[in-house]
Amino acid sequence: FIYCVLIAATVIGNGIVLFIFYKRPSLRIPVNFFIINLAITDILTGLTRQPIIVIDLLSRGESFIHTICGLSGVTLCVCYVVTIFTLLATALCRYLVIVRSYGRKLSTKVVVIIMSFIWVYGTIDCLLPIFGWNRYV
Questions:
Q1: Per the domain annotation, does 136 fall within a domain?
Q2: Nearby residues of 73 by Cβ (< 8 Å), 6 or more positions away
Q3: Domain count, the chain
Q4: I need a surface site. Which of 31, 73, 97, 124 has the fewest CB within 10 A?
Q5: Global pTM?
Q6: Which residues constitute the domain of residue 5?
Q7: Please, which residues have CB within 8 angstroms of residue 30's CB and are 6 or more apart in sequence?
Q8: How far is CA 97 from CA 29, 90, 105, 112, in A?
Q9: Residue 51 Cα to chain centre, angstroms
Q10: Grouped pLDDT means (10 residues each) for the chain, 137 residues
């Protein structure tokens, strides 16, 4: 029950964040795109990873076969790696804007390139166990 409440809170709460960014164009500055990226990652976690946990808890671990376990590991890994690196990029960009006064040099294109790199890196890094480099257990 608690996991279902967490899923609902995750999806609804981050959906509200995305809705606010959609309704308020003044919030769509390049540095705030990292917040949008975090909201999308949290929604993906709530819609993919958390239901797998609920299914596993309800079936007492009997529903997991090797493929589902691998899929669960990949989704968990991608979402967490992207979250961690998005937080790192946010902190680094805030440092550059505040301490080094690079505020005008941080364009939308730069932020999109950073986020694309984060997603590509996270996906490649987390797919390696599926292709035989280590494994998810």
A1: no
A2: 126, 129, 136
A3: 1
A4: 124
A5: 0.80
A6: 1-131
A7: 106, 107, 108, 110, 111
A8: 13, 10, 9, 17
A9: 16
A10: 86 94 88 91 86 74 64 84 94 83 75 93 87 70
